[in-house]
Fold each of these.
Amino acid sequence: MAKNKTTSSQKKGTSLNKPSKNEKKEEFLIVGMGASAGGLETLEQFFKATPAKPGMAFVIVQHLDPTHKSLMVHLLKNHTEMEVSEVKDNTLVVPNHVYVIPPNKDMAIFNGILHLMEPTAARGFRKPIDFFLRSLAEDQGEKAVGIILSGTGTEGTLSLKNIKGQGGLSIVQDPETAKYDGMPRSAIAAGVQDFILPVAEIPKLLLKYSKNRKFKPEELPEKISTAKELLEKVFILLRNETGCNFSDYKSTTVIRRIEKRMALNQIDKLELYIKYLQNNRGEILKLFNELLIGVTNFFRDREAFDSAKNIVLPEIIKSKKDGETIRIWVPGCSTGEEAYSLAIIFDEAIKKQSKKLKVQIFASDLDENAINLARQGVYPQSISVDISPEYLSKYFYSDATTYRIKKEIRDQIVFAEHNLIKDPPFSKLDMISCRNLLIYLNVEAQKKVFAIFHYALNPEGILFLGSSESLGEYDSLFEVVDRKHKIFKHRNAKLEKIPDIGHLFQEPPSIKTMAKPILKRNHQDNLASLTKNILLANYTPACAIINAKGDALYFSGNTGKYLQPSPGEAKLNIIEMAREGLKADLQVLISKVWKTNKTETRNNIEVRTNGTFQLIDLSIKPMQLENTGEVLMMVIFEDRKKLPNSIKETRIVKPEDTSELLALEQELAATKEYLRSTIEQLEISNEELKSSNEELQSSNEELQSTNEELETSKEELQSVNEEIVTVNTELQGKIDELAQAYDDMNNLLASTEIGTIFLDSNLLIKRFTPTMSKIINLIQSDVGRPIEHLSSNLIYDGIIEDVKKVLNKLSPISKSVKSVDGIWYLMQIMPYRTSENVIEGVVITFVDISEEKRLAEELKEIKENFDHLLEITKIVVYTQNKDLVYTSVAHVHPDFEFRSMIGKKDEDFFNKEDALLLSNTKKKVLVSGKPSRNIIALKIGGGIRYFDLLVRPVMANGEITGIACTSMDITDLKAAENQLLNPNDMKKNG
């Protein structure tokens, strides 16, 4: 069977490069599949679930060993009935076919044709998956599908973002089902996927998507584009949910994005999709994210950035004084790559000169998620495709899977959520970089945006647009700096040429109802003006003032004899208005004046006017406005004497015109003959190539059948080798991390004052810190010796028994021990656990607690003295929280010394009346925040006792958290006071 498949593939090879007319018109999905080494099992599982004729093409890109031939083609043939072939250069992609990238090649697609290129990056730094999927996104747009399968690293993340941004479908393998989940998890973390699925379920989704997605432009009007009111309902739902109005987007862009969401949800009518949106808020948010086109990358269009760096940056820096700030705005910044790119090139340019300048970049976007990612400044390692190694090392921190922008660059950028059309713009800017945003906006929205940019820029400010964008009819607002790379400069324009953007500012202009005073004209001014008008009308030739586009701005005299408006829509282009006989000469002269900037004249031109021919002299003079510097031209029509009647109806054929026409005809005939001979030679060469190709194919069939078994074995070995290479790369990274961790640990252990010693399960010394030498007599050569062989400076002999207890019971032990030099240590013995939670010894730490011991003894002595003092003075000290619950008590009253008061309230010890009295007294302090002192009588021990109660508030962070009370028993004092006040009672008692 394998032999038959191989033969079939070879016989059909010719048709792949020369499809029929029907194949050329066929529209189908092209599925790009990225997998790292070890992805063979995943691909086999995928194609087992894919039918023989899915109606789409599959292109597989892997990380392959460049020194070995890949046998993936032959292995996949056993798992699919589709044609499988290794890509050859200039291969046309056709449906129901699987294409596999060859080793040591980069691959791209252009106009549906696969092209192979020699890799430019060194081995280990190549990104073949991103390289191909990016080209797939740009070439196929909405017909592109990107799938990221099992693999390590972060490759595929950025290219999936491109595919989704162009309206294509992005799918990521479920990381739980992937043998290596690095690539899938990276794509999911960046949020660039439409679906996350197990491999076996992806083909089913592709078939449903292909069935519901239509790509023929002629089908769009019937489906969506004519249903304007339905489209507006979608806009209303989006606006109500997100606050954004997408009616400013180009209708074709919006329609394609809506159609994609309809296909993904298996809905074929817009009315049904609107109902689905109304009942599914999540789908509205998904559509919102689909419409927020986030296609960007670092230094997008490298030549344009080089032009900006060489032309724009020096001028901006030159215009700034020492200490000033360069202000830049990047609207539509997406995930921040554009803003960081500008920050990098400005930082590089500023450091090359002497002035100290600051850079402040305002980066804004409508997408909150994109702004959040931009603020983090963390990107996958695959950005190395777009950034030079010099910039990566200078402006980024690198770890195993990501690059993080350095703080000095991050601090220059302010990221903000901002609606370019609705929100007020930033102002006083030196540069605006808005690249590939305007292409998605309609004409009215572009009109507003250019007005906003013109307002926001300083005089001489720079506007940097994308490669597919242009100023269009707003070129009067900006002058060209670099037309190829779309760099323009702010131009002072007339107010009437600047679209109104007053709606962006909250304070409207005040409306004055006062009537304007009528200005009286001076009589002499009127007379001078009248004289001037008569002279112009009778003694000067007719003329017209035109701009660079040829549009007439001003007419003087009777120009109707030479110019006549064309029927239909009103146009002021002077070429289109020129009467018969004038158009050719007028066009030639205008072109010459623009090139030479000198006055050009042509005499004796016949112009057909009212059925007759008028002989005129035509002159065109360049002129420049003083206030704006705008270059214009004056077209002057000067009549000559009328032609005689005999030649009025006869056109004069000029000899120079006849010779020029004959020369052009001869040149055209020679070109046709040369083209015909070239085509014949090309056809002959093609026939020879076909015959040679057939001979090579037949020879190749014999070689393939002979070596098939050997190739299968080699392919299996190669697959294993690819996995080993990938694993080896990961291990190398782990070794580097381990070496770094080892250095960090050594420095940490050397710098800490905590004595630490590591013992294995046999109580052999593994490692110790320098501080341990003061506690146990250790030198570096003691590593590997039993700890029992070493003498200790501790006045404690049970350390070995404690270590054994920890190893047996796995319970930590903490003890205070003293050394012979009088230092106290807190000794902690803990089991040593590995990352797999296996006990492999113990860790013993000694922390110097001599100071803590001394303080503890002092505190103990102070407490004993304090308790003795309270006992003598019969004072009880206690604290309560805001709920009047006892939290601490010092020197308990004798009647309560056998009862626990902590956690209880006054009602637990006193009768109801006494408890209420105490509670009210204490609550007043909690409310007022002021101390209170009262003499209170309480019933205790069957009698009444008097207490001098002082209550103070306890404050924390400016708030009352409880009270502190001192209570002194003054019963005896009270009795003595009563005897002094009532001596008669005392006598009676006596």
Amino acid sequence: MRVPGPDTRVVELRVHGILGTTGDALTDSVASVDVAGDGVGRIVRPADRLRRPVPGPMLSAGERTVPRVVEGYVWGGMTSGGWGKATWALLFPFALANVAHWMLPSPGRGNVLSRGLSGVLRALLRLSALLLTMLMVAQLAVVGLDLLAAQCLRPDSGCLGFVPDTVRELDVLRAAVGLLPVALVVLLMHRLSSVSWHVSAGRSEGTHHSATAPILPGSNVVSDPDTAALRALHVAGALSIVAFLALGGPSGWALDPRWLISAALIVFSVVGVLVMDDPTGSNSHRRGQAFRAALHRGPRRTLMSVSGLVLLSVVVFPGSLSSALPGSGGTIDAITALMVTTCIVVAVLLVPAALLARSGWKQVPAQLRPWAGGWMAAPMLMIACLLGSGFGAGLALSIRQALGDSSLLLPAAYDDLAIFWGTAAALLIAVGIVLVPYVLVRNWRAAQTEGPVPDEVALLHAGRQQDQKSAAAAWRLADLQRRNVHRALLVIAGVLTACTALTMLLRYFGLPRTAWSNWLIALGVATLAALAIGLLRMVFLAATERKTARYLGILCDLTLFWPREAHPVVPPCYALKVIPELAARATEHLADPNTRVVLVGHSQGSLLAAVATARLMESLPEEDRERVGLVTAGSQLQWAYPRAFPGVVPHDSLRDLSGSLGGRWRSLCRGTDSIGGAVSTWNRQVFDGMLIGVGFRTDGTAGPLPAATRGPTGALVLGGDHWLPDPQRGPFSFRRWVPGVLGHTDYSGDPEWDRAVAMAAGLEAPTRAAALPLITPTTTSTPSASKASGPTAAGSEVADAQGVHAQGGDGGSLTLVITGRGERAASIATASTDAEAEAGAESPAGNGPGVDERTRVWNEAEAAEESKSGSENGTATGAGSGTWTGAEGDSGGATETSQSESTANGKPSEAAEHADDSSRAEQSVLPEITEPRGRTAPWERGLALRSSSAER
């Protein structure tokens, strides 16, 4: 890393998360202005009153300040806004089927069986996606051609009496009314799936294969050049299935050439999606190469044109439309049965595929391993298929109910779907009634076992009783939600599987229907109608109301990150535009050798920023890579993405990215955040008054880390994770302060934000291994060592032989009493750190002493202690039962003393008196806490002992 010079500046390039945001909010300014981008992906900066871009506030880095430029990348317009994007919600089942592909486990390197299973699973997922498209289009044809044209508008029907008889007597006109809207829907699907975002920067995808494990996170998130061919197969299959249904379906075998052509086109589409699998075209020997070459632009157009002509011929020569169409039931049954069979085969084959991929993550701790062992693609695919079929059935049932004619008939499969969704609704309600109280009671019992305030919370909010209580409840709730997201998906998948089995029993084994089955049908009809009407209403509100559009955009934000792979009929992937443009903007700034670029991502933006940083690490020369840093805030890069998408963001790739950045990856975390969490550390625990854990090291390995340090803002820094106090400490002078528990919001308002950016830029390093005591709120009126040292001091709480209790107050000294074996007690006290002192030190009005004065006071007290301590292995507690005390005012203050040093023959020593006077004079000032000698993590003690033994 180059030493920062006088011309060094930092560019902070921010990326927002889900729900979108404005340029003003992203850059923390009252006004912002675009400085680059194409209006879809906007790069903004803060602006002055004349709408001119201005740099951000100066960045404090240790004892100096560095110029900073704040920029933000606004991509929310790609997923929400207007009628066009609102209707994307109707394609949500397609998007889920596409997401299921990216959840597949990576095939083992050099394992032929694993690679073969991966290829089969990818082919089956593409087949399931095609069947889902055909099913939804066929259900629309049932509504338009069968329910409306053939039944409601027939000449002798009283349905829709305002329709003139001339329309009812013309079969061609009725067929056009029923089929042309379906054809229009297919055309719109083709148009939507043909749209891609224009990338203003050069693509940096390389020749990665989406089926291989990435070296760095997201390196296999690439566009598929076969999407155009796959899209043509979906369009041909959708148009052909409508013609096939109108001509009699599977049982309508005849010498009609239209029936034969539509059946041949369906078979061709099925075979095509099965053999087409090479996302980048990097392997010329893979199967389907000849087929892929044959489906270039001309043959694709021919294929879709032939399908359209067959459908047009059905409109012109529709045949008899005097009653319910005989081909509707058979077509819907055949597609549904084939789709359910495919889902079952995928679920079965995923078991050995996940077991073969286990060697890649079996050494990872249990809480970081893939959900369900890498099997989550199966329930995701099942949910997608059942949602798609449910939406079509719900639309048909809702329209029949709205028409108000009891003589209108729907295929028997719709009754089966009604039973299915009625059973599912009943079971989900029952499971919720049972499991939700069970989980809450279990969580409450665990909270009672570990105490009212978890150790980490007590340590983070040392000396603040009210904050500890409010934070403890939020920590438990957030942890409960993070731990049970995948379990909820598995429960839903299990319920849907049970309902599918029950429906198949009722349908194929001819079980008699009773009052219970009729009740389930009624409940299912209500559920499907609510599903269809609710989704259509949400689309309308999203197109007309901005707030609803933002919340509907959550679905797009989460599903449209993934490129079109298994299903091509999904909206364009925003990641393929955002990531290369972020990397290009960073490269543009790095052209200045005095500039350091820090990519900052919040929530979903942390995934975008991490993948963009990985691309920079692959493409930049060594001297430029050293000037790149990464900050993530409220990120899901540990608890969600590596576990749900082990083939895209595996744990090892995050470790390698952390190693390539060499400590310049900082993560802001809150235990109260139910969406974000830790990124680089795990197995955290409080030991002997210290926060310790395991995590990513700067050398690219993973293992035990030095104990956490407490920064001047009150945050605990363990490895690359900065644990922020929530509620924030404060309020502070000259700083924005937000009260209450913030959870997933307003990370940039925390004073630790700037410090993390400075570390990511390589301008500041955390103090190593500061030991921090565990604090529970008990007020002590004086920081005197004599009152705090004994286990029977007033207000103290003494643990049992194996317990740990702490005492302290919100504004006074904080004392920890630890009782171990042999009734040995040690008292340790500390004070919480606040950022007001830092703000005061930087204030031109001189509201507080400067950094040099604070450091001088701290160093004099520490030097006095060291000079008096005669012990070779001296500790902060001295010989026997000593104390480490601190006084905390508005901002906090701390000194370090030893009982054996501070008293000699009953009189305080001169050095201790000087330190005590200094602490009282500087109560509003708190320097960064450093490591008390002798208080190191247990594994560090072992290393020290081995070193000393070797020296002897």
